[in-house]
Design brief:
The chain contains seven helices and eleven strands. A hairpin with a 5-residue loop joins strand 5 and strand 6. Bound molecules: zinc ion (ZN) (2 copies). One zinc ion (ZN) binds next to loops.
Length: 275
């Protein structure tokens, strides 16, 4: 069964409405589609996320679509919630009002020692500027801080799926700024894979950087996937789609991952293992 649980729409920074995405998913023969709007950042970053006020209206629209298309496709209501220490948590308690079917926990902002938030994936220019201004130009220090924050999220928050574990690779092919084979970097992957395993959470194989032309590979890298697999971590295949036509981008290239339905009602229940 074709599925994708990482989908953005006009409720956040996606291009298409939820219903347009549902119709595309039916057209492509999907058995289920899950929505995961960006959610609840600290107040000054809310232009592209669900604010607390929007969360219930978003959930109501997705639940109404689930009813409308019942029998044709299964529609799930999730969120992609940010972890910003002191500002936002991907935690079930924070979203209790809408009882999401699942929560994807993601780090898009690294908190620097001076308290500033450096955006991981906005643009190569803003990342370079953020590392220069808030990490003294030390990319390695920034990367250590990123992975430490991911591990803190994994071990302190109640969510289901960890989003794009090595989002820091996004610009590293077209605008290289660190060596992905450096021993200190591989040691970060080992430590983080240990944390994913200890948390019992599901890791994404996320093709979003392929559909947007930044990488010819998924997150996490093959080296990272091997480390996760060796520790028994389960994967879910995600498009991180920001448009209806991207909901299965490059899925044929990463079909060897197990797909889980992350739901509080059916925790870790396998619904499909792609051939
Ligand atoms: Zn994300
Ligand atoms: Zn996303």
């Amino acid at each position: 069964m074709k599925t994708n649980y990482h989908t953005h729409t006009t409720w956040c920074d996606g291009k298409d409405s939820p219903e347009t995405v549902v119709l595309a998913a039916i057209e492509k023969g999907f058995g289920a589609i899950g929505f995961s709007s960006h959610a609840m950042l600290p107040e000054d970053d809310t232009s592209w996320v669900l604010t607390p006020e929007k969360v219930p209206r978003y959930a109501a629209e997705i639940r109404a679509l689930a009813k409308k298309y019942e029998g044709r496709i299964r529609i799930l209501c999730g969120v992609e919630a940010d972890y910003v220490p002191g500002g936002a948590t991907p935690d079930r308690r924070a979203y209790a009002a809408i009882s999401p079917d699942y929560i994807i926990g993601s780090v898009h902002f690294v908190v620097a020692p001076d308290g500033a938030r450096v955006c991981v994936d906005e643009s190569p220019e803003s990342l370079e500027d953020g590392i220069r201004r808030h990490f003294g130009g030390d990319a390695e220090a920034y990367l250590h801080a990123y992975f430490a924050q991911v591990r803190e999220m994994l071990l302190s928050c109640d969510f289901d799926v960890v989003g794009h574990l090595d989002l820091v690779r996004k610009f590293n092919t077209r605008h290289p700024y660190f060596d992905e084979t450096a021993p200190w970097y591989l040691a970060e992957l080992d430590r983080t894979a240990d944390a994913v395993s200890a948390s019992g959470k599901i890791a994404e194989v996320n093709t979003g950087a392929i559909s947007r032309g930044w990488l010819d590979d998924a997150y996490p890298s093959a080296a990272f996937r091997d480390r996760l697999r060796a520790r028994g971590v389960k994967f879910i295949l995600s498009a991180d789609a920001h448009a209806a036509d991207a909901i299965d981008c490059a899925f044929d290239r990463f079909g060897d991952c197990e797909v889980f339905l992350p739901s509080p009602l059916t925790p870790g229940r396998t619904i499909n293992a792609c051939a």
